[in-house]
Amino acid sequence: MDKPLKGIRVLDLGHVLAMPTCTMQLADLGAEVIKIERPGIGDDSRYFGPFKNKESAYFISINRNKKSITLDLKKDQGKKIFKDLVKISDVVTENYRPNTMQKLGLSYETLKAINPQIIYASICGFGHKTVYPGRPGYDVIAQATGGIIAITGQADGPPTRVGSSIGDIFSGSFATIGILAALRVKEKTGLGQQVDIAMMDAVVSVLENAVVRYTVTGEIPQRTGSAHPSIAPFDVFEAQDGWFVIGVGNDMLWERFCKAINKTDLLNDSRFTTNPKRSENYKELKPIITEWSKEKTVEEILNILINAGVPVGEVNTIDKIVDDPNIKLREMIVEVEHPLAGKVKITDTPIKLSLTPGKVEKASPLLGEHTEEILNKLLGFSKEEIKSLKKEGVV
Amino acid sequence: MDKPLKGIRVLDLGHVLAMPTCTMQLADLGAEVIKIERPGIGDDSRYFGPFKNKESAYFISINRNKKSITLDLKKDQGKKIFKDLVKISDVVTENYRPNTMQKLGLSYETLKAINPQIIYASICGFGHKTVYPGRPGYDVIAQATGGIIAITGQADGPPTRVGSSIGDIFSGSFATIGILAALRVKEKTGLGQQVDIAMMDAVVSVLENAVVRYTVTGEIPQRTGSAHPSIAPFDVFEAQDGWFVIGVGNDMLWERFCKAINKTDLLNDSRFTTNPKRSENYKELKPIITEWSKEKTVEEILNILINAGVPVGEVNTIDKIVDDPNIKLREMIVEVEHPLAGKVKITDTPIKLSLTPGKVEKASPLLGEHTEEILNKLLGFSKEEIKSLKKEGVV
Known about the structure:
The structure is a homodimer of 395-residue chains.
Chain A: E1 9-12, H1 18-28, E2 32-37, E3 51-52, E4 55-56, H2 57-63, E5 67-70, H3 76-87, E6 91-94, H4 100-103, H5 108-114, E7 119-124, H6 139-145, H7 166-189, E8 194-198, H8 199-204, H9 210-217, E9 234-238, E10 243-247, H10 251-260, H11 275-280, H12 282-293, H13 298-307, E11 312-314, H14 318-322, H15 325-329, E12 333-338, E13 342-347, E14 352-353, H16 371-379, H17 383-391
Parallel strand pairs in A: 1-2, 1-6, 2-5, 6-7, 7-8
Antiparallel strand pairs in A: 3-4, 9-10, 10-11, 12-13
Helix pairs in contact in A: 1-7
């Protein structure tokens, strides 16, 4: 059976991570994603480590399932080719600064005049509608301005960036949702529209209860290490040989937990009888739990608490994940064969559909691998014309 | 113009955060989300702080735009009503443990027999297809087993949970993408399917380059505080009155940065002339930057570096975000009027569509607020019948 987005064509001007995450999700689900790159150079992330046979595994992991054509959008012929592709595409995606497409003469308004059905999705630091039009937006800036850095880290330590670029990845995922919603509208009404994702917005929208904690109570949410701000014990703890987490979300689990660790006296301890009390007296509770856990291995602790029905998890390092039996069963790490890099193990889609599953089918494209195919099959250019476009540096 | 998901009916058995995030996104985009809650009790998160007039602002923020009916799925009549609703709905969503719906006699297979077009989306810790069928999965467990905790935190500090429940929120967002893709398939083929999201998968899929760093180099990614593992200076720094980040991603930006902070001598310092050297000698570079920044306010630093074209951002605390002019322009924080809590400021959708925008339209429902409406209008129950269902505790 066809994948869900079979027949959808996406012209992808995305680079590095935010928009490439979106178009990776679209390509995994079956869209034809045509990645448009600068002749001779390509996406910046082709130069990001780690490398295998000089090929970027970073690039490979995010650009699987896509096609690549080169096109110089600063040249008139490059613009013409791009506009001709817009006529026969469903979606245009980009993550430049807001004014870049305007300067190229390829703003949404221009493209809409060419193809009223086109969906134009952008991701940038502060949005196309913004009071900060010139400000660049890297992931770290979105994480900082969007508030997640201020609330991540130990209570007595500095504000801390999340260990992966979630500002980019959330923005890309929200762009995907916006595009899928806009495709529905387009198919029902024949009208395209603009999807405008600001990375700062994306981070603000995933602060969970931090915003209402401030707007309702006036208290500014602080860093609390790994502890949940209002549920206890719900934290990272140290074992003899590593780290683990528990999530004791209610009084029933608290009872199970105390029995499992042979500390039933805690059940009658007035400091800990309800969740609000455990939260309030957590500074006294944490050392009691650590005293128990420091004597045991992570494996022993998992056995005890899983058997007792207490939510528990090991703090997996990345090597553990790659070997995890559930990750294997769910085919979350797959090997792709890249023509230059050889076999590379990358992450597959977490969106598991039973009837029309998306999945990694092929490695990332070489720079301009599909230029001839696209120009010839979609736009009717002859081999000679393509050769001359190459000579002129247009493709 | 109608919102993108107008006409789509979702029966939502979700609770707390992961699936409610998904159905919030669907409701924001115009789906009719019918939240099914336990009579007299409702979603656990109705009891999560902060509270305003005893109403949970946590619940309000995530369940805006939804309807609520109460239904006891353990009672035969409750099951019957649920199945009758499945016949006239497009999507069923739940985030119980894998065997819960089976035990209730409401597995996907059962529901599919009733309505072959139904899309059945689940989120749980390790997936419905899993080697860990009994293991519960809270956000903190997904963050731990999925690897983000191991790579978040200071280099010399403990592994650190991300400050909001991104394990839940990514899972919910991926469920939304899966449901939108499945809706496309359903509309083209008349066939429903299962969307099976594992929270651990979701976290593994957002580790960025950590997986390839391990699979390609064999090195286990470590915590690096806020510093970028291979670009410098790209970190959180302390100012006189707060914190800020800079992203000096290349040598041109390094030159701009040194000029802006009046330390042009650094440009000739052999420890710092290229990015690899700056990364290698970052321990010596960081104090030089901090020496400069500690004397200045965040506002002064932003003025200097924005004017110089250096990527920079303030580490916003939540109070700053609520007052940020760009957040205001983009209407990211909106006030809803709740019948009991009164006015509450919550986060609106970050998915900004130009033609058919999703948005917060109304506050979260009271427990069972729409029970009568749904039972009467959709299933034809009379007032008397509903009264008797209430008496029997079915609704």
